[in-house]
Specification:
heterodimer, A: 181 residues, alpha+beta, six-stranded antiparallel β-sheet, B: 210 residues, 6 strands
């Protein structure tokens, strides 16, 4: 009798563990940074340069500087793709924005969409990941584009919600420009 | 053996609870209040093509739920005020369109918004008109079961259009603290009369700030 109960208990646990594994597997399959980069590449027929966080100095786009430690503290697990000196026709914003949203749905919530003649396009999507908040920002300007995905802590996430446009731009700026300090 | 089974059962229950908890949040269904006070803003999207700049901020119940925890900091006065103001909020949707010149947008572009806020349950509670600047601000409230279910702020200028739709039980007294938060722009609520007051005030010496 005890043995049966034990088997039943183990079987129940196995089912739950399986369910949790499926949940985790789904989470692994959530479209995000890669999907956004791919869309920019296919939509605008552009080529990106992925820049590992600690190796940016080598590619000349952005230098690794002392302030990086501070940035890592602000944004964790950063992925960056930079598209430099290529053609991004601003007139296609009406199609690109919805296409990006469709690629990331339903896992990501769109927080911000900016379209501007001078300011370019900015798209920011957010998603909860345990204690962290994942943020995916795509900035498209007439000659350049950047895709950034980062993990934010509560404090940084609060800043993003309070001022979505400025903080989204700050995120891409911090991730791709050098600090002269 | 019983202890082992009990442990297995407890662990199983915890795992099940964790799985269930993982399924809530972003996948939340809109409440009845939210469904009633949510104004469809899709017709505005065509303005983006004509605008020099368009900003679309959408904070749904899931994201806002996260924000409530974030802003409830006991030591930060400003954050506490925001937390108070958003206590009953279920969603914030902001659309801002800035145009290079006048005549880029017309009443027909916002006709659908006006139609929605004229439906039963909505009341126009604030109307500000500033003829000198051709500027108007309207606030429409939707009340449900003795509580505010949501509001729409419609601010128009010849070269700018702002629509803010907030959903949930909103404390109108604390709305001002939300300007500048969640992408909500500063909205000038001074009308013609207020401008007159301002002009009179300009002749008086400025009061000392504390």
């Amino acid at each position: 009798m005890r043995f049966r109960k034990m088997i039943a208990g183990l079987a129940a646990s196995a089912v739950l563990v399986s369910a949790l594994s499926q949940h985790a597997a789904e989470a692994r399959g959530v479209p995000g940074y890669d999907a956004a980069v791919k869309l920019v590449e296919t939509y605008y027929k552009a080529k990106s340069r992925g820049i590992p966080w600690y190796a940016r100095g080598a590619v000349g786009v952005a230098k690794v500087v002392s302030a990086d430690a501070r940035r890592v503290a602000r944004y964790g697990n950063v992925k960056i793709a930079v598209f430099e000196d290529q053609e991004f026709t601003p007139g296609t914003a009406a199609e690109f924005g919805p296409a990006l949203r469709q690629r990331l749905a339903p896992h990501w919530s769109r927080l911000l969409a900016v379209g501007g003649v001078e300011d370019g396009q900015v798209y920011t999507f957010v998603r909860r990941d345990g204690e962290l908040f994942k943020v995916l920002t795509v900035v498209i300007e007439p000659r350049d584009a950047v895709v950034v995905q980062a993990d934010l802590n509560l404090e940084e996430f609060a800043k993003l919600l309070a001022n979505p446009e400025d903080e989204s731009r700050a995120l891409t700026r911090d991730a791709t420009t050098a600090d002269d300090k | 053996m019983k202890t082992a089974l009990r442990k297995t059962f407890v662990l199983g229950c915890l795992a099940l609870a964790a799985t269930c908890a993982g399924g809530t949040g972003y996948g939340q269904q809109p409440s009845a209040t939210q469904a009633r006070a949510r104004v469809q803003l899709e017709t505005l999207e065509r303005l983006a093509a004509r605008a020099e700049k368009s900003v679309d901020v959408s904070i749904d119940a899931g994201v806002l739920g996260l924000a409530k925890g974030v802003f409830a900091k006991p030591n930060d006065e400003k954050a506490r005020k925001v937390a108070e103001a958003i206590k009953g909020l279920e969603g914030v949707y902001v659309r801002v369109y800035e145009f290079a010149s006048e005549g880029q947008w017309g009443e027909s572009d916002i006709a659908d918004i006006r139609r929605q806020v004229k439906e039963t349950g909505w009341s126009n509670v604030v109307n500000v008109r500033n003829r000198a600047e051709s500027r108007t601000v309207e606030v429409h409230l939707r009340a449900a079961d003795g509580k505010i279910g949501g509001l729409v702020v419609l601010s128009t200028e010849p070269k700018q259009l702002v629509v803010v739709n907030m959903i949930g039980d909103i404390d109108v007294q604390k709305l001002a603290s939300l300007q500048g938060q969640f992408g909500i722009p500063e909205i000038d609520l001074r009308g013609d009369d207020d401008d007159d007051k301002d002009r009179k005030a300009e002749t008086k010496p400025a009061a000392k700030k504390p």
